[in-house]
Amino acid sequence: MHRYRTHTCGALRESDIGAPARLSGWCHRIRDHGGLLFIDLRDHYGLTQVVADPDSPAFKIAEKLRSEWVIRVDGKVRKRPAGTENPELPTGQVEIFVSEIEVLGPAAELPMPVFGEQDYPEETRLKYRFLDLRREQLHANIIKRGTIIDSIRRRMKAQGFFEFQTPILTASSPEGARDYLVPSRLHPGKFYALPQAPQQFKQLTMIAGFDRYFQIAPCFRDEDARADRSPGEFYQLDIEMSFVTQEDVFAAVEPVLRGVFEEFADGKPVTSEFPRLAYADAILQYGTDKPDLRNPLRIADVTAHFAREDVTFNAFKKVIKAGGVVRAIPAPGAATQPRSFFDKLNDWARAEMQAPGLGYVIYDEENGLPVGKGPIAKFLSDGAQAGIMRATGMGPGDAVFFAADQAAAAAKLAGAARVKIGDELGLVHRNRFEFCWIVDFPMYEWNEEEKKIDFSHNPFSMPNLEVDQFLALDPADRERVLSIKAIQYDIVCNGVELSSGAIRNHRPDVMRKAFQIAGYSADELERRFGGMLRALQCGAPPHGGIAPGIDRIVMLLCGEENLREVVLFPMNQRAEDLMMGAPSEVTAKQLRELHIRLALPENR
Description:
Layout: E1 20-33, E2 36-43, E3 46-52, H1 59-64, E4 70-79, E5 94-105, H2 122-127, H3 129-132, H4 136-158, E6 162-163, E7 181-183, E8 191-193, H5 199-207, E9 212-221, E10 232-242, H6 246-264, E11 276-278, H7 279-286, E12 300-301, H8 303-306, H9 314-321, E13 325-331, H10 339-353, E14 359-366, E15 369-373, H11 382-392, E16 399-405, H12 407-424, E17 435-439, E18 444-447, E19 452-455, H13 467-471, H14 478-482, E20 488-493, E21 496-503, H15 508-517, H16 522-536, E22 543-546, H17 550-557, H18 588-593
Parallel strand pairs: 3-5, 6-9, 11-17
Antiparallel strand pairs: 1-2, 1-4, 2-3, 4-5, 7-8, 9-10, 10-22, 12-13, 13-16, 14-15, 14-16, 17-20, 18-19, 20-21, 21-22
Helix pairs in contact: 4-6, 7-12, 15-16
């Protein structure tokens, strides 16, 4: 007989009744029923009920057991007494009547219990993550993560993609976040950077003549944490393809994501064909480039209706004269809501969005005609009211809310109000996965703080403009430059951005021009991206790719709202590993070897 087990704790069935068995695992729960001890024994595979009575030679040891002790038990498999079966457990028809118990690993008093799914402070959960991971839901999430990654790998290989591994120690790159830097002992004063993404390496793989690359790639970014973004490190499905257009990338990626979600969605509907939204349309209609399409509400531009001469609502007219806009958020059926519904939304806009409030009109019907009511209705002419109803699709029984500000601020408020109103009115279809592509991103954006043009997305993207026209651009023509679109795209699911991608800039002359417009000198470009430039000069194929986030995919499929619940050993919100004590101080010897002298802030 094996030293520790003949079966796992999830293996025994009615067909094993009468057979001897040896199990090893953790004491999940211990129950004393009038001298009869029941032990729920747990391992990675499941849970089996073990029974010891006072006549058993193992009873004295059983009495000493406590939660999370690791033990080995020997005994005979028997059927559970009638009425005590547990149909929710695969092993729920049987139990082991124990004849021998060996304590393999006693446990001290636990800082947090494993049995049950009570919520505990993040600090406790992360410091004792090894205990947290024993809990059923979190343990299941991590296993599901592994099976999801297996499915992704299988689907990628079936489409002819080959898995590569790219370097972890590399050079700094402007990916949009801060780098993690690693000092070089052999080259004093110089640093490696951990890759924010394998962007340049996967492009170089295409230039090297490999056709279809993928990698479950670790990425490192020194940025603040969010619920949908792990601090420090994360993983993505990194993809690159040669001799492709945007359509080819979509055709390769869409079936993989759809298939994985259908496989793990537990029957929830998944978008059959991903719709496409231009970036500008997404900002207008949803107030964000990460729209949740489970919410049917669409924002409308009603600036022209408030700018009419027969409209006297001066608060909005002043905004329009200052170059601002007015966005309308429909609220179907809201006319039946009490006044408190409207007051609550106004309070929310002021408190959480730091906005003056949300204007609104409630539509009723009098003499067979729609009539607007509410605080600002009297300032709107019949023509303006009719135009607003046409723009929003609203009518009697409905309401419309308004956000007025400069375009970006109005989009932010309207987008958040759309989410809030959809939730309050119960309009969001929760139990489904709604995907979409966001396309036609602007190539550049204006950095107001530094008064300069910056890349708005990926600096290695191809402009969606004829090469000759792009090369002839005047960098000083800000309006023209800011109108250029890049062949860039995102995948969004249920309001979560899963991925960014692009058709890459594969021509050195176009790359030089693109970085010149963004303020890079020829010397700086050569210093930071000389390797890429030299590679492009040696014959580069048109290529493109994308990188869906593994952590976010798993988070959605596990029904979680925080990445911490699907990552094995996450950091806290301050990028600290409370379990291992990282980041930590190092010795003076180590610093000398690296030629580093600390200049710490005084009030640290």
